[in-house]
Every structure is written in structure tokens, then in C-alpha cells.
UniProtKB/TrEMBL annotation, chains A, B:
GO terms of molecular function: DNA binding; DNA-binding transcription factor activity
Boundaries of every HTH marR-type domain copy: 22-157
GO biological process, alphabetically ordered: response to stress
Domain of life, per lineage: Bacteria
Name of the protein this chain belongs to: MarR family transcriptional regulator
Species this chain originates from: Paenibacillus sabuli
Pfam families cross-referenced by the UniProt entry: MarR (PF01047)
Alphabetical UniProt keywords: DNA-binding, Transcription, Transcription regulation
Amino acid sequence: MGKESGTTGPVADTIAAAPTEQDAALKLLVVLSKAYKTVMDKAVKDMKQRGLSPSEFTILELLYNKGRVPLQQIGQKILVTSGSVTYNIDKLEGKSLIRRVPSPDDRRVVFAELTDQGLALLRRIFPEHAAAVQAIMAGLGYEEQLQATKLLKQLGKTAEQP
Amino acid sequence: MGKESGTTGPVADTIAAAPTEQDAALKLLVVLSKAYKTVMDKAVKDMKQRGLSPSEFTILELLYNKGRVPLQQIGQKILVTSGSVTYNIDKLEGKSLIRRVPSPDDRRVVFAELTDQGLALLRRIFPEHAAAVQAIMAGLGYEEQLQATKLLKQLGKTAEQP
DNA sequence: TTTAAAAATCTTAAATTTAAGATATATCAT
DNA sequence: ATGATATATCTTAAATTTAAGATTTTTAAA
């Protein structure tokens, strides 16, 4: 038996040779998953301490940055289904952190926007959260973070398959 | 009003200056999330076409690569809770793709291992899936994939906070 | 040995997400 | 205007995940 070779499969029993193209892709998927979950676990812990689920927090953050946003765009931005948007917007509205505002131009459209209370909350919470995220990402130096961002952006941009 | 500046926040109204350290960290989190979800969406689509949920598939893949694995280690490897492991192992056992094997050494421990049927399935499915993953990751070239893997591994390795 | 603490699996209920379809409105070509 | 198609939100049920705690077994100390 050869030495451990990560998640590369029953084949890879060579001595630290360069991975094949396919192995590189498979390994990237594994590492991406693990990094995402590890990082998210910590970020989520920070969010929950503030009484918000990750989806709730992400929506609030979006509204904080963008102002008034149609529900549909929220789903597109944070990549969840319309059902999930409705569910979370309901919860946030129940907490009086956001409000629904019907569009005057298009009666199908409903905007979400922060209430004064929601804005006040974010003004207080966001800097703390940002500091927490900074700490979470400290495994990479500044330049490495920029590099990772560039690569991940490129990876995420792969054309949608219709 | 300044030009669009991504998700950097209400502050960033400078002209494409270098992001602050905190902005770099926040942006990395956003880009990591999006890349993960975009990539996973496609990988999951591939898995579901084969009648398996992502968790089921990931567990099968793990057993395919590692052989007999204690349930607890499965949870650690794929980063889900023990409840989720039980749920998915039950489903896979129901499909006769894996079987539970009690450890002879430690009666608390239960191994999961592929059945002949499960092994046959993976031998057929895995190469196709690997090809799909390769296509999904094609947004990055080979060297870029290695680089991304290195960075993500480093990022995911941040020490656990007790 | 008895006890205390740790570890592994499972159970249960609640939380969350998705998938599919329903409804209302808008757009566009007739 | 009419009708067809597309879009936006919501509803519902099912699937999945988590959180918390129960049970069993192991380990180590007294």
C-alpha cells in the first residue's frame, strides 16, 4: 500500500506525482467545499450570536449595501429559491427589521427595505461582524486574499448551462 | 454618487482604490459563497440525475476512496452533524448501496462500507461524475486550479476555536 | 470495583430549503 | 383589444439539516 493521498481515489498510489487534470478538478471541489463549510461555520456562529440565521443576516447585509431591493433580486443575489426568500423575508418582517414595499411601477414587484430599527441594528452589528470575518479569513494574508478572490470570481463566473 | 463598487458597502465611493484589509476579507467571503454555490449547483445537478442527493453521493464517494469508515468519521469528513449522517446512511442502506458493520473492537463504533451493488454503481458512475466535475471547473486552467486549491486549503485550515 | 467523564450512535422536534405549482400582473404579437 | 407567453411572488408539501438530549460503551481514576 502507498501512503495517504487525500481524496484522490484508489488509483493514486504514485509517489507525489503531479495530479492529472481530472484529479486537480476533483480535489479543488473537495477543498472548496471544506473551506466554504469551515469558514461559514464560524461566520454563522457569529451571526447566530446576534440572533440571526445566515440567510437572514445575508439579506440584511444586502439591503444595507444596496438599499431597496426587489424580492426576486434577493434570491438571485444570495442564490436561494423564491420560497426561501419569502420565508426569510417573513421572518425579518416579523422582527420589524425590514418592510415590504410594493413597487409603484410594476404591481408584481415587491421591494424589501430596512426599517429604521433594522438600519440601527446593522449600524451597530455590521462593524463587529466585519471584524469577525476579517479574523476568520486571517489564514490568508492580504495579497493571498486578493488572489483567492480573483480565482474564485473566475471560477464562479462559468456560464450557466441552459 | 460614485460608481458601482460590488458588495463593499456604503462607504466605498473611492475610485477603484485598493480595498482595505477588512474589505478584502468581506469580499472573499462573498466570492467564496458564490463560487461554492454556483459550482455545487452544477455538481448537485449531476448527482441528482444519478438519483443521489449530494450528501448521499459524497458519502459513497468517501467510502469508494477509503473503504470501511466509522460513521463518526464520515460526519467529520463531510462536515455534517451526526443526525444527518444517520439519516443519509439509513437511506443508502435502504437502497442496498452500503451496509453497516459493527466494529469488533469497540462496540460503540459502526462502520459503513459499500455493498457489491454500491461498488458496482460507483465504478460505473464515478468516471462520469469526475468528467462532469472537470467540466465544471474548466473556468480555471490547470495551474490556476492548483493555485486555488493551495489557497483554499490554507484558508480552510484555520485553527478551530474551542 | 465503582464512579466519572468521554465517545459514538441514534432519536426527536424544530428550522430551513427546495420543488412544484397557483395567482396576479405585464409584455408582445397579432 | 385578444391571447399567449413571461415574470414576480406566494403557497404547500416533502426533503434535509441542525440542535439537543438519550443510550450504550469505553476509559481512566479513585
